[in-house]
Amino acid sequence: MKLASYAACADTSRGRRYAEPAPTTRSDYQRDRDRIIHSVAFRRLEYKTQVFISHEGDLFRNRLTHSLEVAQITRSLARTLALNEDLSEAIALAHDLGHTPFGHAGQDALNDCMRDYGGFEHNAQSLRVVDELEDKYAAFRGLNLTFETREGILKHCSQTRARTLGDVGERFLNKQQGGLEAQLTNVADQIAYNNHDVDDGLRAGLLTIEQLQAVPLFARHLAEVRATYAALTPQQLRFETIRRMINALVVDLGTQTADNLLPYAGQSIDAVRALPAPLVEFGPVMQQENRALKHFLHENLYGHHQVYRVMSKARRIVRELFSALNDDPRLMPPEFYDHAMRAEQLSGRTGRARVVADYIAGMTDRFALEEHQRLFDLHVLR
Ligand code: MG
Question: Which residues of the chain have pLDDT under 70?
Answer without folding.
Answer: 53-58
